[in-house]
Every structure is written in structure tokens, then in C-alpha cells.
Amino acid sequence: MRTEASVLHLDLDAFFAAVEQRDKPSLRGKPVVVGGVGGRGVVSTASYEARRYGVRSAMSTREARSRCPHAAFLSGRFHAYRETSERVMGLLRSVSPLVEPLSLDEAFVDLRQADLPDLAVPTVTAFAQDLRRRVVEVTDGLTASVGVGSSKFIAKIASDLDKPDGLVVVAPGTERDLLRPMNVTVIPGVGPATTERLRRVGIHTVEELETVTEDEMVRLLGNAHGTWLFHLARAQDDRAVEPERETKSVSVEGTYDTDLTDRTLMEGLLTRQAGEVATRLGKNGLSGRTVTIKVRLHDFTTLSRSSTLPSPTDSRTTIARMARTLLADLDTSGGVRLLGVGVSGLADWVQEDLFGETAEAEEELPEIVVPHHSRRTWAPGMDVEHEEMGRGWVWGSGRGVVTVRFETAQTPAGPVRSYAEDDPALSAWRPPEPDPAAGG
DNA sequence: TCTGGGGTCCTAGGACCC
DNA sequence: TCTGGGGTCCTAGGACCC
């Protein structure tokens, strides 16, 4: 924790709804709800007019409609949100090089790196007011709530205290007095489960939380969370403002209006999602080793299955096949409401293609053709054929061994076998069409 | 017809290696 | 012939955030 109030947190007010009201004057002053409009949609953002009717983020759209039937229900225009967000982040970066975006509508700014004569409360207050004015300017009318304090934690709490269109600067030294009367739920990281655990031992406020020893807290909430909360209860937070945070995973998921029961359809949907994940990996120059599927059953039970390759991939065919294979192990007979595919274990480099082709070339050539029996030709995802086992694809290779998973569209979870990489029974599978470029 | 989609981080158990 | 530890990787699930 710093001795001066030099961490700023900025939060754009009802951001998605505010962009809609800005761009569509007929919506100004009226309740606007942005979110999923389908049968199983939830509210992403409600304008303050809609909040007066009890509409809240994360509420089902169905309930929002019953609370506020005359609201405008919009599915969202993410390009507009992103574009507006970039203008705000650009403004923040012009003020300090240390800007950490948390989402499209939120960021931390380190004021130690800003051009300020000093970091006294009156100075940062004037600076923050001017920044809020410039946000309105640069966004054509959107307002922001800002908090400034001696840490990320305090700045974030402060920006919440006078919403919307407010500013709160917490004077150094007053943090703990501010926190004590507050409910534990104001602490970021304290959600429903933690709140309930604390409630059961009679803890509701930060002041009560302060009475718990670190050991007790760890016993109650686990090592990481317990230790973390022990310190936050005392306003102890030394986290730096981190401008660059690297991506750890990329995923696509979808909830369907009616439960799925057709396995072939599920495989088709996973295949399409895998393609979207691969495209996004490729655009960002990423590849990853672990493919995970997510399946939410009719009763909301959520399952995940994952599998890790020997080397990273960004190939749509490999990701899709792994996804379908993982699905094969699951009983989905009761119906599925959500399917998803993700890739993690990311490397910021793409495995060098054996033919020196670019990722774009793979888009046109989903089936890779490899020469017969030459060494070092087995890359994950390649189609191969075994004299006895039939057609399969390379699961992994290395140290002279190639592992092949045999599958057909009907039986995705085929057996896995390993062979010496120069086993003559194993050959590259060729598409039925003659390919003059393939050579021998 | 309650309950999105994109993420991050943590835990716990088992495998495996030294 | 009884029973080490530590470290790392992988998997599944859960809590939480916006």
C-alpha cells in the first residue's frame, strides 16, 4: 500500500446501454437492457432507467422483461463498444503509460507515472475531475465513475461509492476507517460462496473480518483466498498496475434455446466452435497444447474434459478432433444446453509448419498430405493410415514414437496406439482426389 | 423455459521423476 | 517388505469477475 493516493480506477457508467443511448437518441432517458435476447439470455447491462425497475446485470432476460416490459431489449453491438472503449483507453494512456484495462469499461491508471506536480489529495482530485470531463468529450457524452486511493483495492472500492458520474478520493490513512463498516461483499473476490461461509461463522462486515486470525481465515477459505482476504481486511494491497497481461486461454461457447440430444449435431457444433477458436488463435499468433470442452447438461450440471498434446497447435482440424473425442466420453442422454471449446497452455509461437506453409494456407488445406515413410513427418492432427487399424490421426509424436488415435465420424473415441515413427505399416493418408503436388 | 460468454485463479488428487 | 519426500504436470471442478 502506498503512502499517497496514486492509483486511479475508472468505470464507465452502464457502458453498453450508454453507448446505445448515445447512438440512438430515441432511447435517451428510457430503460435500455443489453444482453442475450434469446430464450435463455441474461442481462449484460441495464441503463439506470431500467435499474429503477429492478433490472440487474446477470438477471435472466425473461425476468427483466417481466419487471420492465417497456424497456428496449438489445443484443449488443460489440464493435461500437470496443471502438468507444479504445478511445477511453487511449485517453488514459495519454495521461500515464501505466494503464491496466480490466474489461471494455474499466481500467486502473498509475498516477505515479502521470505528469502531476505532486500526489496530494487536492491535486489528484482536480486531476481526476478533469479526466472525467475529458472522458465525456472523447466518448461524445458517456460518463465515468472514478475512485482514487493508495492501492488497486481502495481505488476500486472508491469508484463504486458515488455511481454514476461520481468521484471519490480516499485520503491516505483513512482506508481502514472507510472499510470497517462495509459489508464483506464489497471486497472483490468475495462472492456468494465466500459470503455464505463467512456468514456461518458470524462475519458480515469488514470490522468483524479483522478479528479473524490468518490461520483461521486459511482454514475457512483455503490458502490463497484466506491469506488474501486477511490482508485486504486490513487494506493491505501491494499489487502493481500491470499494463501488459498475456492471454492464458481462448474459448468459444454457446447456450442453445432448446436442449441438444443429437450427438452428430453436437459434434458439428463443436467442430464449428473449434474453427472459431483456431481462427482467433491464428489472428493473435498463438497456439496451445490443451484442448478443453465444456458441457452443461439439462440440469445445469457443468462438466469439462481436457486433453493435452505433446506440442502446441492452432489447427482447426486438430482442435475439432480432440473436442469430438472428448465429447465421446460423456453421457449426454439427458440433453445438453451448452457446448464450448477452449485452448489453453498457450505459447506465443506457432509450431513451425513442416512445409513452411503459413496458417492461412492451412485454412485452404484442412487435410495435410505428407510424403510416404519419410522421417519427422508426424505432426499432431495429420491424417494417417495403418495397414490393420485403418484410418486415424496423429495424436502426438516424438522420441521416435508416433501415437495415433483411430476414429471415424460414427465412433469418435477410437483406440489409441503407438508405433515407431518409421513403422512401415503406418503411412500418411491421402485424400481420394489425385494430387499432382504430393509427389511419391 | 430460472441461470450468457469471455476470462482468471485456485484446489486436490494422481502420475511420474529424482 | 516397508514406505521417503519434493517437484512438476495433468485433469476436473469451483469461485469469481465484468
Automatic annotation (TrEMBL):
Could you tell me the keywords of this UniProt record?
Cytoplasm, DNA damage, DNA repair, DNA replication, DNA-binding, DNA-directed DNA polymerase, Magnesium, Metal-binding, Mutator protein, Nucleotidyltransferase, Transferase
* Spans annotated as Disordered: 410-440
Q: Which residues form the UmuC domain?
A: 7-191
* Designated name of the protein: DNA polymerase IV
Subunit details: Monomer.
Known EC number(s)? 2.7.7.7
Subcellular location field: Cytoplasm
Q: Where does the record place the catalytic residues? A: 106
Matches recorded under CDD domains = PolY_Pol_IV_kappa
Q: From which organism does this entry originate?
A: Nocardioides mangrovi
The portions of this protein that span the membrane are none
Q: Does the keyword Nucleotidyltransferase apply?
A: yes
- Report the co-factor binding details: Binds 2 magnesium ions per subunit.
Residues bound to Mg(2+) are 11, 105
Record has Nucleotidyltransferase as a keyword: yes
